[in-house]
């Protein structure tokens, strides 16, 4: 009886190996030959599933995003605070460190590759969507803030986490998990306080200039 092959699982396996190879050896050294060897397959087998290295990289990006979303969708995530949710994207353990090292290597290729830039646009949109969901679930006041204010908070926190990720990947000894979490927590507290004040100010009608003038002593 012919062996039944789960092709989706095999594609994920190759993508997972690609993450590990890129994280360990860098983007340029992560050749199709090396990825195939690490996966225990021939290059012909890998070519059966992917037309090029870029296709493998795209599959790896999708796999990472799916894993992050799965971690955010666990039953325990519904009761987690925002810091705990966003921590799923930080290099706090072996798996997340590999994923983040892959991200850092991918970002380094963007200036020289137009197709990767287009892929990154899609990745950034999906990544932001996941973060926005975290804010909406964890901060009850989120939905009541003006749209442009929500966009600013989301962009600021996402940019901070991306920068922290790059630093933690390149200098892990300087960025233990507790330090990463402490700084992200501080950023969240600062932006939450700022946004609350900005939203309150935007919701308060400006007092007409005439009324202000009449309220002054001697007016």
Which key phrases capture this entry?
Tetracycline Repressor, domain 2, elongated, single chain, 219 residues, mainly alpha
Kindly describe this structure:
The structure is a single chain. With about 220 residues, the chain is mostly helical. It has one domain: Tetracycline Repressor, domain 2 (Orthogonal Bundle), CATH 1.10.357. It has ten helices and no strands. Helix 1 crosses helix 4. The longest helix has 27 residues. The protein is elongated. The termini are far apart. About 5% of the residues have low confidence.
Total individual domains? 1
Report the CATH superfamily: Tetracycline Repressor, domain 2
Per CATH, what is the topology? Tetracycline Repressor, domain 2
Tell me the helix content.
Answer: over 70%
CATH class descriptor: Mainly Alpha
Query: What is the CA-CA span between the terminal residues?
Result: 98 Å
Low-confidence parts lasting 5 or more residues at pLDDT below 50?
209-214
Number of separate strands:
0
Largest sheet: none
Q: How would the global form be characterised? A: elongated
What percent strand? under 5%
Mean pLDDT across every amino acid position: 87
Q: What is the strand and helix layout of this fold?
A:
Layout lengths: L6 H19 L6 H8 L3 H7 L3 H20 L9 H5 L7 H16 L4 H25 L8 H24 L6 H27 L5 H7 L4
